[in-house]
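Sample pair:
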Amino acid sequence: MTDLKHLLDDAAGPEPATTDLDLDADLVRGRRAVRRRRLTGIAAGTITTAAVIGAAWSFLPGGATPDTTPQVATTTAKPSATPSAAERPPQLDTGPLPPKPAVPVALVPNPTPMPGKITCDLIPQGWSVDFTSPSKNGSWEQKALFDPALQDPEQYRAHSTRIRIRQSEMRDEGHGLVPDKYGIPWSELPHVRAGNKEAVISLGTKGDGLREVHVRQGRTAHLIAVFNYTPSLGWDEATLLKFAGSCHYK
């Protein structure tokens, strides 16, 4: 057996010597293999994370992709047959909407100033004021108008039985005053008139009063936001703007 091993060794010839270049090449190949495995793991983790985030968005109200683009009305925009999501509050239930009146609720002079910092000189006829102030120090407030004659309002969809009024501000970011609602300066937004005041209104048609209005108070950074999502008023755009323009700080 020993002689056979020697014969095989002689036939194979001498073993080639291992040089420093060979060792360096092996080291480089090994490092590349480790790097490829790491990159593969990172890519797989990224895909998994994206899939999880996508799945989470799909369960949130409003769909998988949040839309942060300001939705405001312009004088040149074509009316949309289907109102955008920005024009309606989040609908977290599927309850019925309150009935729309055969004749729109009239605006009448408001004989009693509303509680808090904000009041409106006009008010829907027969409606009442519910005042709430979420801020402990009174620096921020919200109020709602509702129809006390509406029977069993809790049966209806959330936000659909009241018109809401709240305090809003613009902040100076160095390139103009920017409203809380939007990410661009007030001067770059398309404006409408609410009474004698400058305002911005969400998308919709002239006959649609189910909209949001932000009314600037003079040349200040103060705004008053009016949110009308109740069919109970039967208002069109002009009536909503007239009401919103009558609201002001005391």
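DSSP finds three helices and twelve strands in the chain.
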